[in-house]
Structure formats: structure tokens, C-alpha cells
Amino acid sequence: MTTSADELIAARLAFPVGDRVRGNVSAIPMVAGRAGVLVDLGQPPQGWVDVLHLPDDPTDWPAVGKAGLFEVLQHRPGEVRLFPLDAGMRGRRTRFSRWSGEEWAAITRRYPEGAVVVGTVTNVFPGNREYTVTFNDCWSVLEYEDIAPSVGWTGPFLVTRLLEWTHRILLRPAT
What is the pTM of this model? Predict the structure, then answer.
């Protein structure tokens, strides 16, 4: 594996997808309103909150030094993508999920933690070593380390977590 793959794996171990982490806004690398904010998580890599999750008005963005609570969304080489759980750091219209509260409640009853679903690999993203699995009316993004799965492969997956804030279902291969 390359160094960037090793760093990606280390970041996944330190900051698992779905975990809640504390951090401090450390920089606004571009003009406010253009890209997002960097978050110091106390160890590498840095966190990143995309502009889409921040207030529409850049003057309402969290200031450098502001502490907050975040959900880990994704890992990319050199960064941990974050969703701000503190309402003051999010835009009023920020809605991460495509499902309403009632729809999400029905999904969590249909796919509780520990359930096994049959899913199909629909996309593979080698740059950040992820792949998408669709099952029934849902989808999930999974991480891989060594060999990428093949698009079109269908098999069993275990529901490992249901993320209430972002309405996401986390899976892992059941085999």
C-alpha cells in the first residue's frame, strides 16, 4: 500500500464514520462563503466542513477557534469530512438526509442494527477507497482497504449503525 493509503486507514481507525468528534475551527482557507472551514481534531488529519453544511451568510460562519461537535461523514486522503452537529454552525436550510423524520423512522424499523440486507455494488471510488451499495430503496457507502469490490457484485451486508443526525445506514459485508 502507498503512504496515502496507510494515512487513510489510520484516519479511519482514529475517526470512524458515524462517530461524533469534538474539534475547533482552525482556519477558513479561502474567502468565507467559497469552500468551507478546517477543523483541528487534536491529531492528524484535519477535519473539513464543506460550504454546503455552513450558513448561507458567510458572516454567520463559525469563527476560528470556535469549538464544536461534528459527525464523521467520510475520509479522503489528508482530511476527515465532517457534518456540524451544533445548530449554530449549520445553515438553517441544511438538510443532510433525503428522508423526512417519519420516513427515517420507518427505515430504522425495517433495517435495524444487526439486520442482513442483500445489496449490489453500484459504484467504486478508488481515490478514497469507497464503494456504494444499493438495497431495496436505500443505499450506503462502505470503505475498503485492499481489493476493491466489483461493480455489479450482489451479496449480503450487515447493518452496523443507524446514524440519527444524518439519516445514514452503515453496512459492512456480512461474509
Answer: 0.89
